[in-house]
Amino acid sequence: MPNELLGNVTLSYLSSYIDWSQNSGELVNRATDDPLVSHNPFKSNRQFIKLEQSFNKQLVNSSEIFGDQKEFSLREKMKNSAEALLDCLPDKISLRLTDEGSIFYTVIKGDLKVYLQHFLIDEFDESDEAILSIFQGDDNLLNYAGELSEVIVQFSTFFSSKNISVRQLA
Amino acid sequence: MSLPKKITPSNLKEAVVEIKYISDLPFEVLVGIFFKALDDTYKYTNRPLQQLPFRQGLQAKLGQEITIRVGHPSLFYNDKISIQLSENTFVFTSLDEYIGWQDYKPQIEKALQQLMSTNHVKKCTRVGLRYISEYAGKDLKDCINFSFSFGLPQVQSETTAFRSEFIYNGTKIILNLNNKVPFIRQQPSARQVEITQVSIVDIDVIADNLEISDLDQLLKTIEENHTKEKEIYFGMLKKDFLQSLNPEY
């Protein structure tokens, strides 16, 4: 939605200039960049719904890739990785299902591009695995592969350190 | 003053309608009842619990890692709007770009009819309607009757944030004007990002301390809030700027 209104232009100012806590403009401390307070929940919900719609649509045509795995289970797995990525308040996010039985996410956040491949493992007691790469232009800032939960920690740590580095008190 | 029915472009970034209500049932139970009451055009989804690291300073002080898990509201959506359900609150937003009041209002009305048909929404206590418009690369002074000065007249503000709360025809208004806010803009094909400016008009119309149990009265209040929002928005616009928006009456 916010991305689309200006065509291909990415907007990221709303997260820091408008308070969304009560669906009203009531003023809170703007010095914070705590996403709980300052981010636009409607944009995030829209992105989540769009990801879910895209996933469901692709799954109809790719169900053979995932064998006997239940659609409900696949959808819930997708929600977990999508939710983790949405935590960085992306400007744009999209996904596609691959022939390898994974979800490949592309995320744009400011001048950063994030690629996350989430492999949907067909084992009840095994964790899903994932590969994460983060780029700034041509510079590869982070590569990590492992269990999805570990990859999410790396992703969150990367973005929380980014936030801290730009926070200024005066 | 006659109010336009449509302007192009609308420049609307968000159009939020929030209704606070009181129910006789716990929220966890209500979600299931609302799920059953809404027709098949609505899809239900819920976002997983989010695990957030606690603030680093506190973590270092306590010497242990702390995370908090935050639940998201339940969501219903169709091809035009989404409905966010949280405790005692319905929040309506458009799913994509703003669809215009002539389409948006019937969507809200249809959903409210179904939600209130459960007879578990005992009364509605607050109706908020918030419209946020943005103007990329524009100075608000060129769009609306807006000037701001303070005790240093020689100062030329690069960015201005103005906020006013007032009562307009018995309804609370929170008006936020942000002029030339810098933001990061990136074209997908470009490697470099650029800092540009955008101006924002944020009008929040709040009818509070209500005791509405009747759907017609609720819809009337929503309509009144929308009319007041339009009166304030169009009342602020400069005539030549309004003409540039191709108003249709």
Can you walk through the features of this model?
The complex is a heterodimer of chains A (170) and B (249). In chain A, strand 1 and strand 2 form a beta hairpin. The model of chain A is unreliable at 1-16, 26-38 and 164-170 (pLDDT under 50). Chain A starts with a helix and ends with a helix. In chain A, helix 4 runs antiparallel to helix 5. With 170 residues, chain A is an alpha+beta fold. Chain A has one domain. Chain A has six helices and five strands. By secondary structure, chain B is α+β, with helices and mostly antiparallel strands. Chain B has one domain (12-244). Helix content of chain B is 27%, strand content 38%. Chain B has six helices and eleven strands. In chain B, strands 2-5-6-7-1-8-11-10-9 form a nine-stranded antiparallel β-sheet, covered by helices on one side. The mean pLDDT of chain B is 88. The chains are: A alpha+beta (170), B alpha+beta (249). Chains A and B meet through helix 1, helix 4, helix 5 and helix 6 of A and strand 1, strand 3, strand 7, strand 8 and strand 10 of B.
List SSEs of chain A in N-to-C order: HHHHHEEEEEH
Q: Distance N terminus to C terminus of chain B?
A: 11 Å
Helix content range of the residues of chain A, please?
40-55%
Structural class of chain B, by secondary structure, is: alpha+beta
Number of strands of chain B: 11
Rg of chain A (CA only): 17 Å
Main sheet properties of chain A: 5 strands, antiparallel
Indicate the overall shape of chain B. Answer: globular
Proportion in β-strands of chain A = 15-25%
Count of helical segments of chain A? 6
Radius of gyration of chain B: 21 Å
Q: Total domains of chain A, how many? A: 1
Strand fraction band of chain B?
Answer: 35-45%
- Which pair of protein chains has the largest interface, and what are the residue counts? A-B, 42 and 50 residues
List unreliable stretches of 5+ residues of chain B: none
Shape of chain A: globular
The pLDDT mean of chain B sits at 88
Instruction: Find the count of extended strands of chain A (DSSP E, 2+ residues).
Output: 5
- Which secondary-structure class do the elements of chain A indicate? alpha+beta
Average residue pLDDT of chain A: 76
